[in-house]
Design a protein that fits this description.
The chain has helices at residues 2-18, 73-86; strands at residues 23-29, 45-47, 55-66, 91-107, 114-130. It has 131 residues and is of the alpha+beta class. It comes from Pseudomonas alkylphenolica.
C-alpha cells in the first residue's frame, strides 16, 4: 500500500513541476571590450531599438522561456535586467523575440503515430553601457 501512495505522490509532483512556467538565461560577455562593474538591476532599461546616445556593447543575453504556461512578461523583463546588471549594463536592447519550435516527440502506436512539437519563446538582447 505504501508503494502505491509513493507512486501517486511522485506522479502528482511531476504534474505540478510540468505545469510551471520557466525562464532560463545565458549571458555572454564580448571579448576585447572593457568589463564594467555590476550595476543595479532596478536601473537597467529594456529597449526595443538601439538608443541614439553614445554607448558600447558589453555582451548578449539569450533567454529561453516556456509558452504553455507562459511566465508573466514582467518576469522575462526582470530576468533581462538581472543578467545585464551582472555584467555592468545600463540597458538591454531586445533584437530577437519569437515563439518557435524547440523540440518534437512521437507518440501513438506504430501504425498511427503523431508528431508533436514543443514550442518555446526565444529572446536575444544586447547589453549596452552608456558612455
Amino acid at each position: 500500500m505504501k508503494t502505491v501512495s509513493k507512486l501517486c505522490l511522485s506522479g502528482a509532483l511531476l504534474l505540478v513541476l510540468a505545469g510551471c512556467s520557466s525562464i532560463d538565461a545565458r549571458t555572454t560577455e564580448y571579448v576585447g571590450v572593457a568589463h564594467a562593474a555590476p550595476t543595479n538591476a532596478a536601473n537597467v532599461e529594456v529597449l526595443r531599438r538601439e538608443p541614439l546616445r553614445p554607448h558600447s556593447r558589453l555582451g548578449e543575453i539569450l533567454v529561453d522561456a516556456s509558452v504553455e504556461p507562459a511566465p508573466p512578461i514582467s518576469d522575462v523583463e526582470q530576468k533581462l535586467r538581472d543578467e545585464a546588471a551582472k555584467i555592468g549594463g545600463d540597458a538591454v536592447v531586445v533584437v530577437y523575440d519569437r515563439i518557435q519550435p524547440q523540440s518534437a516527440y512521437v507518440s501513438g502506436p506504430l501504425w498511427d503515430r503523431d508528431i508533436h512539437t514543443v514550442e518555446g519563446r526565444k529572446l536575444k538582447g544586447i547589453v549596452i553601457k552608456y558612455q
